[in-house]
Amino acid sequence: MNAIAFDSIARRSLLLDARLEFLRLLRTPSFALPALIFPVMFYLLFGVLMPSGKASAGQYAQYMLATYCVFGVIAPGLFGFGVGVASDRERGLLQLKRALPAPPQNYVLAKLAMALLFAAIIFALMLSTATLAGGVRLGLGQAVLLGLVALLGALPFCALGLLIGSSVGAQAAPAIANLIYLPMAFLSGLWMPLSVLPGFVQSMAPLWPAWHLGQLALAAVDQPSRGGALGHVLYLLLFSLLAAGLATRRLQRTP
Amino acid sequence: MNAASVAQLVAVSKRRGKVQALDGVDMALQRGEVYALLGPNGAGKTTAISLLLGLLQPDAGEAFLFGQPPQSLAARRRIGVMLQSAGLPDALSVAELIAQVRSYYPQPRSLADVSMLAGIESLLPSRYARLSGGQQRRVQFALALCGRPELLFLDEPTVGMDTASREQFWKTIRELVGEGCAVVLTTHYLEEAEALADRVGVLANGRLAFEGSIEAIRARVSQRQIRCISSLTAQQVQNFPQVNSVSRDGEWLSVLTPQPEPVLRQLLAADSGLRELEVRRAGLAEALNSITGVAA
Description:
The complex is a heterodimer. Chain A is mostly helical. Chain A has one domain. Chain A is built from ten helices and no strands. Chain A has helices at residues 8-26, 29-49, 57-91, 93-99, 106-132, 140-167, 173-187, 199-204, 209-220, 229-253. In chain A, helix 6 runs antiparallel to helix 9, helix 6 runs parallel beside helix 10 and helix 9 packs across helix 10 (229-253). The radius of gyration of chain A is 19 Å and the shape is globular. The two termini of chain A are 17 Å apart. Chain B has two domains: 5-218, 3-Layer(aba) Sandwich (Rossmann fold); 222-284, 2-Layer Sandwich (Alpha-Beta Plaits), CATH 3.30.70. Chain B has eleven helices and 13 strands. Chain B has a six-stranded mixed β-sheet, sandwiched between helices. Chain B has a four-stranded antiparallel β-sheet with strand order 11-12-10-13. The longest helix of chain B has 16 residues, at 163-178. Chain B starts with a strand and ends with a helix. The A-B interface holds A 1-2, 4-5, 9, 12-13, 16-17, 20, 23-24, 27-28, 87-88, 90-93, 95-96, 98-104, 255 and B 53-55, 71-74, 76-77, 79, 81, 83-89, 91-92, 96, 99-101, 103-106, 127, 143, 147, 153. Chain A: Its main location: membrane.
C-alpha cells in the first residue's frame, strides 16, 4: 500500500513501540503476574513436589519441564493479543493509530516482539526452576532446542490471540481466552502426561495446536513423544496462517 | 481536484449500515483555514472526518489529503489528530505517550514545546489513567501537535474541559492558525465555532445543508429577539402586529419578531415602566435549527 511504509522513521518508531508495549504489559499486574508466576508455580507443584521420592522423579521433572514451558509460552500470545487487541479496538486506540501516521505494521510487530520477550523470560524462569528445584540437567543442545521451540511456539498462539481480539469485545476476551487456554492445556497433556488420561482424550489430542507444540518440546529434551517433527511444524504453520488470515480480514472490515 | 486544498471530499457518498451517512458531499479546506463542521448527532460529521483520515473508504466519490489518497502515510505525516474517543494506554506515562507519537513524524516538535502548547508540563510523569477527563483531553491535544501538523483534525475537542482550559485551548489554536495550520473542527459548542471558525459547514441528513461564514449563517435567520422586564402579559403582546411568539420567564418577557422596530414602539407606548430592554439577532443555535430543520 505504501512504498515508504518501512522507512527509517518506521524502524525507529517500531523500537519505541515495542518497548512501550512491553512496559504497558509489565505494568498491568492482571497480565504480568499470572503469565510469569503460574507456569513456575504449577510446575513446582505437579512436576517437582508431587512426584518427588519416586524412582523416576528426575525423568518426570524433565518431561514436565517441556510441557509446562509450552503451557507458559502460550499465555503471552493468547492474552497479550487476545485481550490487548480487543480492548484497543473497543477503546478507539486502533482507530487513532490508523489515523496517526503510525506505520501500519508497527502495531502487530510491537505486540509480537513483546510476546516473544515474555516467552523468553518464562522459558528462562522455567529452566532455572527445573535446574535448581527439580534437579533437571539439560545438555546445551537440549536447552537450546527447547528454547527455540518455546520462542517460535509462541507465534501460533499470537495468531490465535489476534483472532480472539479481532472477534470479541473487551469484556468477553479474557473469558474466551481462558476458556480456550485452560481446557486446551489439560487436553493436550501439558498439566499431566496424556498417558494417565482416558483413551478418548489421548485420541482427540492431535486436534489441539498445544499438543503439537508439546510433542515438539518433549522431543527437544529427548522425552517420549508421538508423531514426527515435520508434521507438528506443518500443523502449527497452517494453524498460524489460518488464524492470522481470518483475524486480518476481520480487522480490515471493522476497525 | 483542487491543488491548493489541504483536505477535500469530492461528491462523496457513504452508507453506514442502513443509513446513508453522506450523500454527494463536496467540501474543500484551504491552507490555514479553520473549518467547523456542525450538525445534529448522526448528521454525518464523524463519517466525513473518518473519510478524510482514511479510516473509511467512500462508496462513491473521492477523498484527498494534500492531493493524495488519505491512506498515504506521506500525507498523514502532515496532519495531527484528536479523535472523539481515544482510549490511550492507561499504563503509560504522559511523557511516554508523547515520545511514542513524536516517533511517527519526520520532524516532530520538541517535548518541551508540545507540553507548553497544550499546558501539560506538570502532567508529564503521571500515568495516563490517573488524569482527570479534562487533563486526558489536553494530553490528546498535545499528541495532535507532535508532528508540527499543517492540518489538525479536532473531533469534539473541548468536551470535558473546564472553562479556563477551553479558553487556553482556543488561544493555542489561534496561535497555530496564525502560523499557517489549517483546522477541521467538529463541535457541539456553538460558541466554539463562533470563536474559532473562518467557515462553517452544516451537515443534515448526510448532505451539506449550508456552507459559509458564521455571519452568513446568522443572516439566514431573519428573526430578532426582544427581551425586557415588563408588566405586560404575554397575551397582550401576542396581539401586537408582527409578533411571532411571546414567552414569559419570571418577570422577563421574550418576544420573537422578524421586524423589531414597530413592536418596540408599541411595547414602549404600552408600558412606561419597561426596563432592561435588549434586542439581538437570533443566535447560532437558532440559525442552525432553522437550517437543519429546513433540510430535514
